[in-house]
Design goal:
The relative contact order is 0.07. The longest helix is centred in the C-terminal third of the chain and has 28 residues, at 335-362. By secondary structure, the protein is mainly α. The chain is elongated. It has a two-stranded antiparallel ribbon with strand order 1-2. It contains nine helices and two strands.
């Protein structure tokens, strides 16, 4: 005989359970209970256990859920899936999604692993360091929510509204970003870093950055997509020479990852020169460093017909730009002559690199 579906708890039921629990929600076990459509607004549920609870369509405005079953929130078992379909352009927000809340819900450090939050209204909710592993957030509205350090591992984000949410150092392992997921104007932190990069899970976080890059490209947010591309390539570079991961594998007796110092060095050079095509200012800075650096080398160790630093700087700049020395230039001898020719090759390469990087950024 099929198990009869539990009738949803009402606001009155919750007040009764809190009273029976010594007039406090701390330790009240609501694991797996049906709270679908329940009005939780204004209740002090601090310390309640809601793991696997059904909170579909629940009203959480003003509810205090701080420290609900608090646990360590971040893990290292990370697997992600790629974004395969274009973003659903029809998914738009109505004015109903912009309420003014004087007292947003507080779910700081809450353990909502496996909880069903389908279509839940969580405007401005504080979920700092919350556990949302495998939580069902399909259709949930997290407009302006504080999701810093939240573990969203394996969470269902289909049609989830994360507009203007703060997702600094969030964990997205094994979490798919759907085309219908709304990530517009999300605050990813100053460096667009996910927690997995801090945890040295570079191969896993590389896939997550690629997924976020694809979503923002399809949404037409090319500048943000460029930032995630930069983080993706940075994570790939770090995986090539990760001694921390190597030592952990050594002590754990696991198969040790291979190090690739040459590929790492080349990737680092590209990062320094142009930030993988995302930092044109770095090309200009590198060019200035080359010109002044070689001018100093010519001045201190080169052999020129003039001993003036201004003359060696002129020689370096003229060599770098490959425009010719004009009617007069200090005459070098020895290695300085060959270095001048090499500097011309370097200069042509770096000027072309600057143009490509600059045009790449400006034409988005």
């Amino acid at each position: 005989m099929a198990k009869k579906e539990e009738k949803p708890l009402t606001h009155k039921d919750l007040l009764r359970l809190i009273k029976e629990n010594g007039h406090t929600a701390r330790g009240l076990n609501l694991t797996g209970r049906n709270l679908e459509g329940t009005d939780l607004s204004g209740l002090n549920l601090r310390g309640v256990i809601l793991s696997k609870a059904n909170l579909s369509n629940a009203n959480l405005q003003g509810v205090d859920l701080r420290g609900v079953g608090a646990k360590r929130v971040l893990t290292r078992e990370i697997v992600t899936q790629g974004l395969t379909s274009p973003r659903d352009k029809s998914h738009q927000l109505s004015d109903d999604y912009y309420p003014i809340l004087s007292e947003p819900a507080n779910l700081e450090e809450a353990d909502l692993a496996y909880a069903n939050l389908t279509d839940a209204r969580l405007w401005g909710v504080n979920m700092l360091r919350a556990m949302l592993v495998r939580a069902n957030l399909q259709g949930a509205n997290l407009w302006r929510a504080d999701l810093r350090y939240v573990d969203l591992g394996g969470a269902n984000l289909q049609s989830t509204i994360l507009l203007e949410a703060n997702m600094t150092l969030v964990s997205l392992h094994n979490t798919r970003i759907y085309p219908s997921t709304d990530l517009r104007e999300v605050n990813w932190g100053a460096d667009y870093i996910l927690w997995e990069e801090k945890a040295h899970a570079f191969e896993e976080v590389e896939r997550e950055y690629r997924e976020l890059k694809n979503w923002h490209n399809q949404a037409g947010l090319y500048s943000i997509a460029g930032e995630f591309y930069y983080r993706e390539i940075t994570a790939k570079r770090k995986s090539l020479l990760d001694f921390t991961w190597l030592l952990n594998a050594w002590f754990m007796g696991e198969e040790r990852p291979r190090l690739h110092p040459i590929r790492w060095a080349w990737s680092m050079l590209l990062n320094i020169l142009c930030g993988y095509g995302e930092r044109p200012f770095r090309v200009a800075t590198s060019a200035v460093v080359v010109i002044f650096g070689l001018a100093a080398a010519y001045y201190f160790w080169g052999s020129f017909s003039s001993s003036s630093f201004g003359d060696t700087l002129y020689y370096s700049a003229a060599s770098f730009t490959a425009l010719g020395y004009g009617q007069w230039a200090p005459q070098p001898t020895g290695w300085a002559r060959g270095m001048g020719a090499a500097e011309a090759v370097i200069g042509v390469f770096m000027m072309a690199l600057f143009l490509i990087t600059f045009i790449r950024k400006m034409t988005r």
